[in-house]
Structure formats: structure tokens, C-alpha cells
Design a protein that fits this description.
86 residues, mainly alpha, 4 helices
């Protein structure tokens, strides 16, 4: 691929420490899995992505809990109330 005209000059980032992991996983996927758990929906694929990225980054994104139902004050609402709010 590196020699194909459409990919010429594109290089990989120097590290894995970039926003797709630090923001999308830490704030996005962790919140979505917490919301799903709150309304009793299983998220095995998202949990796996969080786990893999946590291992790669040597962090525990779930334990850090940067954005959760609790940190947003949403943990006190049931599914019907959440549907109205969100």
C-alpha cells in the first residue's frame, strides 16, 4: 500500500496516543456501555474494544470513568425518563 499512488506520503502516527483512543474510547464508548448497562442492554463488542484499547494504552478506561451515567447525573433516571431527557 505504501507505494500505491493514492497512499503515497501517508504515514502512520508516531504513537497510539491520539484522540481516537483518548476521547472516543474514554468518553464515548465508556459512556455508551454504561448507559447500556443501566438499561440492561449487553454490549460485548464495545466492551471488547474498550478492553483492547485499555491494554494497548496501559490504562483502564472503564475504571477512569471520565464520562458515566453517574458523572453526568443520569444514573437516577429509568429508561422511560431517559427517553424523554435524551
Amino acid at each position: 500500500y505504501s507505494t500505491a499512488p493514492g497512499f503515497k506520503g501517508i504515514k502512520a502516527g508516531p504513537s497510539l496516543d491520539y484522540r481516537f483512543f483518548n476521547e472516543d474510547v474514554a468518553y464515548g464508548l465508556v459512556f455508551l456501555t454504561d448507559l447500556a448497562k443501566h438499561v440492561k442492554v449487553e454490549t460485548p463488542s464495545m466492551n471488547s474494544v474498550i478492553q483492547i484499547v485499555s491494554v494497548l494504552m496501559k490504562r483502564n478506561f472503564k475504571a477512569e470513568g471520565k464520562r458515566t451515567m453517574k458523572t453526568l447525573g443520569l444514573d437516577k433516571f429509568n429508561l422511560s425518563e431517559l427517553l424523554e431527557i435524551l
